[in-house]
């Protein structure tokens, strides 16, 4: 009896223990599967899921015809997991070669040799990479095998099917046309961060949105098939379309470099603008930066100097004074003005013409043809300072352009109440103020466009992934002159070419040309002026049907005539523009205007 009672007690105790264990297990199971399931799943996923950033592509910069000036070249880093090369004594399996059935066994040493055959390394070099990493950290999960390989190399490595070999993409900015429009396009610096030009100003368009994905991997670090999940789609950057014509830009750069070298000038600029739209077709500067090799260029010539380096324009701005006189009814092309070589209109104020002459019976046309500082000031004095200042402003002087560059200088135009007496007269012939060459081109665009100033532009807009162009805002057109005033000024500017000494230098056979020279002193930074000059020519062609403006400036020549160099640069640019856009020849003939009375 006693034995039976002991047996029953043991059974009861065993049943109780089983019941308690079952209850504990049940509680734990409920906790795992219900209460803590979400947190545990998330924790497990975090431990086995590997996040991967999918970088977006930076958009292209193209010319007006879609020719690529800047693009993104993708390169890849080849990486491995040192610790995983040691799993299973360095042996892994991969699908049989040549599409065979089953798998084949591969050793780490064999894999090193296969990788090296593609990358140009030896198996020993790759083994050393692994050994070095493991010596530092026996659990090392990362080491570079080869950086910056191309797509072809990447695909060959992927075909090897090595589970512990991974890849990371990188984007490198490249410029297929080298220095062509380098001053406008700009360049990138360390890690392809944009540094200048359109690369900076249009960064919002060019920059895409990186995507992301995750994949799960096993204990051996190998990605689990079918485990990739895209968590955010990649959106590539847009395409920036410029107004520049690549081929014309190349010719303009060749031209300005040649002319600068011929006369040993300090610098030279050359721009071509569409009269009807204000679009800049070429913006050339000597020694422009090659974005592929920035360090090889002169640091002072890496920016778009045509937008950020104003200078006193000189006699090209006499056209503004003449236009204001005609527009206000204060003069006509035939207005007479007996003109001496020197004039002192007020105490302490004196200026002269660039050449000696007696009192000349010149008309306003003759004053422009002979580029007389004295004559234009005598006639210009018929207008109040406020009126002349108003016209300068309406022509865009002293107002920063909005063409699409990161920085665009306004030039210098003091308010009337800050003019001293000398400056009041000097502004009538383009001294005592400054402008960029783009602003100067805008002056002649306005005259040639029936008196309507179109804001200059170098960026047409941003093209999105669907091919839609969002046009850039460069400002509104401004009515500066009456149409009849503009027509009269075109006649005077054509006379300037036909009646002056410059005719042989700027004429283009079959095409009528209108324009004006400029020779300007420049500040020396010490309160005075340099002894040498900046020479310019601003021209319109064809004069009978104005379509294009070209302006050339040559600064401080040491071995030749800067004025002639600027005129030859204009002519070369005009001929290149005519070829590029198939401009038909002029019709009709120039009608002479009297230069004397």
In short:
This protein has 597 residues and is α+β, with helices and mostly antiparallel strands. Helix content is 35%, strand content 23%. Strand 18 (459-463) and strand 19 (469-471) form a beta hairpin.
Give an account of the 3D structure:
It is a single chain. The protein has 597 residues and is α+β, with helices and mostly antiparallel strands. The mean pLDDT is 91. Strands 2, 3, 6, 7, 10, 18 and 19 form a seven-stranded mixed sheet that branches. The protein is built from 19 helices and 23 strands. It has two domains: 191 residues, Alpha-Beta Complex (Penicillin-binding protein 2a (Domain 2)), CATH 3.90.1310; 336 residues, Beta-lactamase, CATH 3.40.710.10. Helices cover 35% and strands 23% of the residues.
Structural topology:
Elements: H1 2-35, H2 37-48, E1 49-54, E2 61-62, E3 68-80, E4 91-95, E5 103-107, H3 108-119, H4 123-136, E6 143-149, H5 151-158, E7 165-174, H6 182-185, H7 197-201, H8 203-206, E8 211-216, E9 229-232, E10 239-242, H9 246-262, E11 267-274, E12 280-285, H10 305-308, H11 318-327, E13 336-339, E14 342-346, E15 349-352, E16 360-363, H12 364-369, H13 373-380, H14 385-394, H15 421-426, H16 437-448, E17 452-453, E18 459-463, E19 469-471, E20 478-479, H17 483-498, H18 503-506, E21 514-523, E22 529-541, E23 548-555, H19 562-581
Parallel strand pairs: 2-10
Antiparallel strand pairs: 1-8, 2-3, 3-6, 3-7, 4-5, 8-9, 10-18, 11-12, 11-23, 13-16, 14-15, 17-20, 18-19, 21-22, 22-23
Helix pairs in contact: 3-4, 9-19, 11-13, 11-17
């Amino acid at each position: 009896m006693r034995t039976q009672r002991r047996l029953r007690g043991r059974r009861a105790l065993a049943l109780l223990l089983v019941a308690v264990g079952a209850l504990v297990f049940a509680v734990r199971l409920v906790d795992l599967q219900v209460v803590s399931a979400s947190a545990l799943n998330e924790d497990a996923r975090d431990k086995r899921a590997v996040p991967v950033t999918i970088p977006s592509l930076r958009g292209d910069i193209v010319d007006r015809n879609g020719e690529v000036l800047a693009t993104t070249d993708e390169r890849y880093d080849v990486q491995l997991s040192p610790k995983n090369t040691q799993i299973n004594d360095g042996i892994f399996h991969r699908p049989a070669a040549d599409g065979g059935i089953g798998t084949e066994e591969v050793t780490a040493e064999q894999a090193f040799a296969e990788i090296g055959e593609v990358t140009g390394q030896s198996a020993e070099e790759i083994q050393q990479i692994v050994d070095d990493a493991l010596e530092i950290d026996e659990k090392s999960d990362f080491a570079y095998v080869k950086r910056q390989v191309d797509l072809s190399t990447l695909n060959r490595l992927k075909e090897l099917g090595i589970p512990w070999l991974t890849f990371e993409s990188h984007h490198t900015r490249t410029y297929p046309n080298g220095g062509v429009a380098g001053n406008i396009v700009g360049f990138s610096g360390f890690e392809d961060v944009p540094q200048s030009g359109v690369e900076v100003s249009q960064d919002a368009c060019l920059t895409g949105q990186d995507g992301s994905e995750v994949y799960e991997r096993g204990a051996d670090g190998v990605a689990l098939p079918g485990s990739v999940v895209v968590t955010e789609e990649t959106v590539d950057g847009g395409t920036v379309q410029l107004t520049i014509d690549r081929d014309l830009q190349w010719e303009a750069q060749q031209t300005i470099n040649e002319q600068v070298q011929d006369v040993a000038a300090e610098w030279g600029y050359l721009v071509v603008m569409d009269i009807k739209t204000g679009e800049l077709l070429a913006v050339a500067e000597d020694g422009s930066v090659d974005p592929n090799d920035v360090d090889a260029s002169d640091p002072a010539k890496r920016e778009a100097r045509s937008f950020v380096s104003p200078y006193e324009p000189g006699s090209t701005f006499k056209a503004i004074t003449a236009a204001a006189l005609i527009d206000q009814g204060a003069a006509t092309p035939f207005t007479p003005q007996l003109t001496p070589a020197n004039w002192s209109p007020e105490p302490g104020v004196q200026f002269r013409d660039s050449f000696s002459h007696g009192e000349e019976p010149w008309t306003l046309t003759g004053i422009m043809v002979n580029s007389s500082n004295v004559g234009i000031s005598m006639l210009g004095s018929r207008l109040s300072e406020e009126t002349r200042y108003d016209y300068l402003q309406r022509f865009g002087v002293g107002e920063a352009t909005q063409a699409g560059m990161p920085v665009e200088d306004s030039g210098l135009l003091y308010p009337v109440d800050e003019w001293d007496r000398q400056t009041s007269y000097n502004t009538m012939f383009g001294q005592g103020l400054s402008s960029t060459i783009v602003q100067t081109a805008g002056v002649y665009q306005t005259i040639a466009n029936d008196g309507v100033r179109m804001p200059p532009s170098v960026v047409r807009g941003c093209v999105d992934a669907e091919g839609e162009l969002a046009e850039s805002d460069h400002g509104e057109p401004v009515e500066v002159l009456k149409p009849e005033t503009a027509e009269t000024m075109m006649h005077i500017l054509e006379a300037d070419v036909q009646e002056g000494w410059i005719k042989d230098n700027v004429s283009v056979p079959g095409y009528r040309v209108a324009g004006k020279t400029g020779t300007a002193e420049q500040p020396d930074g010490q309160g005075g002026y340099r002894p040498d000059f900046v020479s310019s020519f601003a021209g319109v062609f064809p004069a009978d049907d104005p379509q294009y403006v070209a302006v050339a400036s040559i600064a401080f020549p040491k071995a030749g005539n800067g004025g002639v160099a600027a005129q030859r640069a204009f002519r070369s640019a005009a001929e290149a523009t005519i070829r590029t856009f198939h401009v038909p020849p002029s019709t009709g003939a120039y009608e002479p205007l009297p230069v004397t009375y």
